[in-house]
Design brief:
- It is a single chain.
- By secondary structure, this protein is mainly α.
- Helix content is 88%, strand content 0%.
- α2 packs across α3 and α4 runs antiparallel to α6.
- The longest helix is centred in the C-terminal third of the chain and has 44 residues.
- The mean pLDDT is 74.
């Protein structure tokens, strides 16, 4: 009787704690993202510390540099991107007119008036309101994004400034006899995460710059900056990001000219081979050591659990788990 009551009480407490975790799930994700960014920026802070700068000043220099780069991006690129996106939207009706010359589309359009409905929907601007739930929805989404960005920025600053103390506090939880071992593994994991973040940024910049140069030469110079920015942002997403960026650019290329579309297909097929087999391995070889199959599985699981954020966190998490397996579990299995 008493034992059954204790089991029931334990189940109720576990259910209650699970509900609390679900309620603060968004906050936990923001904390994890801030830790991820702090680990990515920490190598830059350590670089300045090694060159004689005190850590608070090193953190200040790194954060100021990041904010300066973001400000330059907003001032120099955002107006250009907005103009080019507006040009893309203005040309959508023309592209639909060109698509109407296709025989199969003419048949479908004659029966269902598909192209006319889509064109009127896009030119009316109603899609933006439907997407965000009207003006109030757009304002709410923007306010939520800015609030989350502010929280992540503050937490990132805090974690960067107190990175050494935070790690040491975590290491103190381990038994004294194993603390040095835990400290070594923990430092390796943090370095791995930082190297992955830096490497992902470098790979994405390579994709964006290559796309920018290609688009200027192929005849899409009026959309080059906007499309290169899209490719850069999407390339950060593991597995599918580069493909999504290539599909968007190629679709606009075909809508502009068939020859340009074919050139886009050829370029991105060749570039993705270069990125997958040359750029990515060389950039990442010193940061994460994860087999290709594990990378795919980890990215799929992470995307299924937390979407884009989960996909970004999946690979360094998989690298940390593999490191623990190699260093802790595998040696024990050999001694049995």
């Amino acid at each position: 009787m008493v034992l059954g009551f204790l089991y029931a009480a334990g189940a109720l407490v576990a259910f209650w704690l699970g509900g609390l975790l679900l309620q603060i799930g968004g906050i936990l994700i923001l904390i994890v993202v801030a830790l991820f960014l702090a680990a990515g920026l920490n190598p830059a802070v350590e670089f300045f510390v090694r060159h004689g700068l005190r850590r608070p000043w090193a953190v200040l220099v790194v954060i100021a540099t990041v904010l300066l780069l973001l400000a330059l991006f907003v001032v120099s690129l955002v107006p250009v991107i907005s103009d080019q996106v507006a040009a893309l939207v203005d040309n959508v009706p023309t592209w639909f007119d060109q698509l109407q010359h296709n025989r199969q589309l003419q048949t479908l359009d004659h029966r269902y008036h598909v192209i006319a409905k889509v064109r009127s929907f896009i030119t009316s601007g109603a899609w933006a309101s439907d997407l965000f739930g009207g003006v109030v929805g757009i304002a709410g989404a923007l306010a939520g994004f800015l609030a989350n960005a502010f929280v992540v920025t503050v937490l990132t600053l805090y974690f960067l400034a107190s990175m050494a103390r935070t790690k040491e506090a975590l290491y103190q939880l381990a038994p004294a006899s194993r603390r040095e071992r835990v400290r070594g593994l923990g430092n390796t994991i943090f370095e791995s995460v930082g190297g992955y973040v830096s490497g992902a940024f470098i790979v994405a910049m390579c994709a964006g710059i290559s796309s920018l140069i290609f688009l200027f030469f192929v005849g899409l110079s009026q959309y080059a900056v906007a499309l290169a920015a899209v490719v850069t942002l999407l390339d950060i997403i593991p597995m599918i990001g580069a493909t999504l960026g290539a599909i968007i650019v190629t679709a606009i290329g075909f809508a502009t000219d068939v020859k340009i579309g074919i050139a886009c297909v050829i370029f991105y097929i060749l570039y993705q081979q270069l990125e997958n087999y040359v750029i990515y391995p060389r950039v990442m070889q010193r940061s994460v050591n994860v087999p290709g199959s594990v990378t795919v599985i980890a990215a799929l699981i992470g995307a299924g659990l937390l979407g884009v954020i989960g996909a970004l966190l999946a690979i360094p998490t998989a690298a940390a788990i593999l490191l623990l397996i190699r260093e802790l579990w595998a040696p024990r299995q050999e001694t049995r």
